[in-house]
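STRUCTURE:
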């Protein structure tokens, strides 16, 4: 039980800015970190729902509520996944051999393509959220849990690009079968929950998640030889954006029907 509690604390300390008691980052305590990773998404989704309820009562236009929805995930995570997106953008835009791409991922400096992709990402997020309504929020809230469950599933299922780094450490320390089983339970619960809230929006959310997951597998294997911590962050960001786009598309298509 103590080991599970320590894994819980490490998961929130690593993947969020939510205040958490300290824990020893030992191999034993790292075993089940991924099992608690999706719970960070529960917090993010809950805050999104709360803001979606409060914003219409506090704001007089559509822009400020959308800004809040864009910034909440960044405030909760401290931008750790966004950092992975930007590093991956620099690496992919270099068109260098695989070894060089992996070196670029480790470079702490932001290149021009990272800045360009970051700006475009936030603009697209802002545009999408400005078009979404409160009826889509419950399904999108589930998406923050689903993206992390799929990311955790990848950590114990996809090949690692290198034998060092956070993803390799979690993958080695994890009790893979148990972590994989836990992630699959999260995925199943999220899928049922999203469809229960709204079948059309739920299906759109699942399509976006599935496309993102397949892209993540093929891109990481082809371009980097496997996944890394930065690529995991890239996936979470891309998955959440694509799910929102798919839900918005479903809303617009449904509105025209």
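SEQUENCE:
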């Amino acid at each position: 039980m103590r080991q599970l509690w320590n894994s819980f604390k490490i998961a929130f300390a690593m993947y969020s800015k939510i205040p958490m008691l300290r824990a020893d980052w030992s191999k034993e305590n790292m075993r089940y970190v991924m099992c608690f990773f999706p719970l960070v998404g529960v917090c993010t989704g809950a805050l999104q729902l709360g803001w979606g309820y409060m914003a219409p009562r506090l704001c007089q236009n559509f822009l400020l509520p959308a800004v809040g929805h864009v910034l909440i995930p960044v405030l909760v995570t401290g931008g750790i996944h966004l950092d992975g997106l930007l590093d991956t953008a620099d690496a992919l835009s270099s068109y260098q051999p695989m070894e060089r791409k992996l070196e670029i991922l480790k470079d702490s400096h932001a290149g021009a393509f990272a800045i360009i992709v970051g700006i475009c990402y936030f603009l697209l997020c802002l545009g999408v959220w400005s078009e979404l309504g409160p009826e889509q929020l419950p399904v999108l809230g589930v998406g923050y849990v689903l993206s992390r469950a799929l990311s955790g599933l990848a950590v114990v299922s996809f090949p690692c690009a290198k034998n060092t780094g956070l993803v390799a450490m979690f993958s080695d320390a994890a009790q893979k079968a148990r972590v994989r089983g836990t992630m699959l339970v999260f995925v199943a619960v999220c899928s049922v929950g999203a469809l229960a809230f709204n079948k059309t929006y739920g299906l759109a959310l699942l399509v976006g998640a599935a496309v993102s997951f397949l892209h993540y597998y093929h891109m990481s294997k082809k371009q980097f030889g496997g996944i890394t911590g930065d690529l995991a962050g890239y996936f979470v960001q891309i998955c959440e954006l694509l799910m929102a786009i798919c839900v918005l598309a479903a809303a617009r298509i449904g509105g025209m029907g």
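REMARK: The mean pLDDT is 89.
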